[in-house]
Amino acid sequence: MNKPVNPGQDGIAALLQGARSFREREYREPESLMPGLSAGQQPKAMMIACADSRVDPALIFGARPGDLLVVRVVANLVPPPDTDSMDSGVMSAVELGLKILAIPHLVVCGHSSCAGVRTALDQALRGVTPDSVPARHEALRNSDPDACCLRDWTSVAEAACHEVIAGHDGLSAEELARHAEQRSILKSLENLRANRWLQDLESSGALTLHGWWFDIASGDLWIADPETGIYSSHAPS
After folding, report:
1. Are the beta carbons of 197 and 187 closer than 8 angstroms?
2. What percentage of the chain carries pLDDT values higher than 70?
3. Which domains does the chain possess?
4. How many other C-beta atoms lie within 10 A of the C-beta of residue 35?
5. Can you tell me the mean pLDDT for 189-213?
6. pTM here?
């Protein structure tokens, strides 16, 4: 009797082959890094990035093992300190990186076509009266009603979405989403700075915070000015 086909089996087989290749490359080559890293880590930067499968920070930024401490969570969000226990997973990693490992740079890195931010934008648009929502934005108002955990988490980005909706009338749905993605990065930085101990690290010069946005379609990286919050493109040469 034939066994039912598992559509994910090829993906699992590829991962297992990848693990074998990684072991050959990073443990058995003369210049392998991993054996030395078994004694500890001292990354030079930390990144809060999205869980999206298309935006792997190590691949995008050319990081090797030990270079980058990464937290990946839907929409690269950092909740404010008073959000019950919802921020404990993200902030436990932030404390590890900044308090224990003394990493000097923390980047919040978002990206284009972020489903998490679009979920928050969908919820924000539902709070606007139907007559005032342009038809071109209707595509952003059709998220899965059963995705309650996703909506709870991405509600952290709704304040940024409301600001964008109020201040950018006349934009297309794609433009509105891009502004929301970039604004939510700045909000996450604000939420990080709401922690007094992190403020102290930044004011002493021991820590620098960065806001980055990656365009999946073009490969361009946009960096927020630390003073104005305005993004400028740092396209690869």
Report:
1. no
2. 84
3. 9-40 (no CATH), 41-237 (3.40.1050.10)
4. 10
5. 97
6. 0.86
